[in-house]
Amino acid sequence: EWCGPCKQIGPSIEALATEFEGKADVVKVDVDAAGEIAARYGIMSIPALLIFKDGKEVDRMVGAQPKDVIANLISRHL
Q1: Helix pair 4-19, 67-75: axis angle to 10 deg
Q2: In this predicted structure, what is the pLDDT of residue 27?
Q3: Of 1, 2, 3, 49, which residue is the catalytic one?
Q4: pLDDT given at position 1
Q5: Annotation marks residue 6 as catalytic
Q6: DSSP character string of 44-61
Q7: Is pTM beyond 0.85 here?
Q8: Are 52 and 58 in contact, with CB atoms under 8 Å apart?
Q9: Which residue positions in the chain have pLDDT lower than 70?
Q10: Is 3 in the active site?
């Protein structure tokens, strides 16, 4: 809730969750509330966008990016 860049991309993430419905799960995780997840994946800076395929991390992007950049990141791994 305190992360400005996270708030900035929040609407894009929510829109992408709808756009990729049935093709990819797009979810948000609050690293303050789920610190064990942040530790498990070595998240040191937020926002961090992690892409998983078959249960394994295949890509990651750190920092606020425009919606189309995030969509392209997801699309590359479908």
Answers
A1: 50
A2: 94
A3: 3
A4: 80
A5: yes
A6: -SSSEEEEEETTEEEEEE
A7: yes
A8: yes
A9: none
A10: yes
